[in-house]
Amino acid sequence: MKVALCQPHNLPRLVELVYGQELICLARVQELKHTFERMRPPAPNRWSGLVLVHIRDAELSFWEARLTWLQGVRESLEGMHTEYERATSPQIQDAYAVSRQAHTLHATSRQAQASHAAGPQARVAHATSPQLRAARFPAG
Question: Which residue of 3, 25, 78, 113 is most buried, as measured by CB atoms within 10 A?
Fold first, then answer.
């Protein structure tokens, strides 16, 4: 996994990828358990039986440890994503408000240019427009 290369806005996709890896590990654990359950139990006092038990235990331990680790990673990433959204939510709202204000100022500027070209009577009407008042005296 390339966690170190990701940015906070990539967290939802990263969580999906980790969850996919969890499912693969879980399937492998279930497959191993099912395979060993179908086999005739090895005789623990024979070398081949002892080796088979150790191989099974090692394989299951590996996949279960990886599954546990992936679950912890996913939970951590989900927590980071929640914190990121909480931290950026006001910033996003502020950026939207600034963008709206810039758009209003730009529209007002275009209107001023158009009214200047139209003559003095249009300038008087433009000077009292609600957009111009809002641009000069922003609420809040």
Answer: 25
